[in-house]
Amino acid sequence: MFAKMLVPVDGSQAALKAAGVAAEMARRFESRVTLLHVQQLPGGWLVAPGAVGMVASEAALAALEEAAQEAVRVARATLDLPADRVTELIVVGHPAETICRIAEEGAYELIVMGSRGLSEVSGFFLGSVSDKVSHHAPCPVLIVH
Q: What CATH number does residue 135 fall under?
């Protein structure tokens, strides 16, 4: 039914709960799962080396990368699926737009994500990532509360 599932993770409890639900579904449907972490630099700016404007320090970028790796590592442990059925992907971008783009490009059949991530305060004012994804995704979205 759902051969390919995309599971965005950010290290939040909601994302881990969604990974648990995705794992149950993956076992039932023998699905392949991609854990996706989208890095967004502080302030929403995407910075390229040598760019004019906001410049992130090497230490700040290393800390972001370490947090991304940890979020994916913990989510993978939560899945507890065979290694050949799990893919990990860490990209830089705007979370909602990137999740939708990856889902379309990868022909995913389902996105399973938490209702609120680590950016709950900004989500309150700007609309949550899960809300944006649910309105623009190219496939069904299961939002886990």
A: 3.40.50.620
**Dihedral (Cα; 10, 12, 13, 15), 10-degree rounding:** -20
Q: Which domain range does residue 138 map to?
A: 4-144
| Rounded Cα distance, 33 and 6, in Å | 6
The answer to whether the CB of 10 falls within 8 A of the CB of 39 is no
How far, in Å, CA of 119 to CA of 138, rounded?
Answer: 24
Give the predicted TM-score (pTM) of the model.
0.86
Per-residue pLDDT of the chain in tens (145 residues, 90 and over written 9): 899 999 999 999 999 999 999 999 999 999 999 999 999 866 545 555 555 555 567 888 888 899 999 999 999 999 999 999 999 999 999 999 999 999 999 999 999 999 876 555 544 444 589 999 999 999 999 999 8
How many domains is the chain built from?
A: 1
C-alpha–C-alpha distance, residues 62 and 101, integer Å: 25
List the alpha helices (DSSP H) in 37-93: 58-79
